[in-house]
Amino acid sequence: MSFSVWIKRLLIISLMLISLTIVLVLGRAKLQQNSSISSNSDVDPAAWSPAKVQLQAVQEQQEEVQDFSKSLTNTSPTPKVESKNKQADKLQSSAKPLVNTAGADKVASTNNQADKLQNIPQYSFKITEAFKQYTPSYKIALAHPSNYGERFATDINGVPVNNQAIIVLHETADSASSAINTFQTAHSDQDKQVSYHSLITLDGTIIYIVPPDKRAFGAGNSVFDGPNGSETVQTNPGLEPSVNNFAYHVSLETPPEGRNKEPYHIGYTDAQYYSLAWLIAQSSVPDERITTHRDVDRSGTRIDPRSFDFDKFFNLLHSFRQPIS
Hints:
This protein is an alpha/beta fold. Helices cover about 40% and strands about 15% of the residues. The protein has helices at about 5-40, 50-60, 60-75, 85-95, 105-115, 130, 175-185, 270-280, 295, 310-320; strands at about 125, 140, 150, 165-170, 200, 205-210, 215, 225, 230, 245-250, 290, 320-325. The strands form 4 sheets. It has a 6-stranded mixed sheet. Strands 1-12 form a two-stranded antiparallel sheet. It has a two-stranded antiparallel ribbon with strand order 3-7. Helix 8 (about 270-280) packs across helix 10 (about 310-320).
């Protein structure tokens, strides 16, 4: 074999090795870039109004929502829920208020309530360094559309409602997975429709269930008695008035030892208190408008959340947010 042939072979082998090296270097750089992108996307934390992740969940269930809405049109006795914009347009174009003359007393009561609410002070808070140091894990488990609805701009008599938000605390009474299963099951019977906006598991994970701008069905016959008097709104002529129209419902998973009908149990985990305070710290709801299912219930059957330590909760909440004067 001649010398020139050996030279050609060496050149070819060298070129192959150089090409392989370039491919490996480029592949490694691309892998690092993808890893960086993935890492950055994982930084996005949960929030009081997790719009992005909830919007994705809503879009994924869009077809299911449409199909179920068609079935409700034919089978459900629940009155049609209209958006605030549609209700406002109706009120502006209507020559007469949508008032049921048989319920004049209710209308007067609602008007009095609205007058009282006009002078409610607004609140603002800022988060603290302690808040920034705590980031709970979270999941999305969107409820079936039959188990939540729109927030109404008027009550059943057409009277505008402008209640400030309250937060109602609950407990699941069973496991978190059992509650989620109930919320994700279609219910055409309005007496069985139920949901929370969010749920906090024993390990502190926040599960987002109903978008915060929607009305969760967390309380039946209920009234909030606060500094501004008694507040409740009736949005369905077939159901008792409730706080659902202006409430944000948050539930704690009940510990295994407390999944019974006893009035007390061992209480909730530290992780649950931290995540609850972290969640609420991002809202503008003041302390005096944070209440419990037991306190707003008028059926006489609700006692949750049992064994809740308000001192512990408020100490954490105040460490996570401070009022802005």
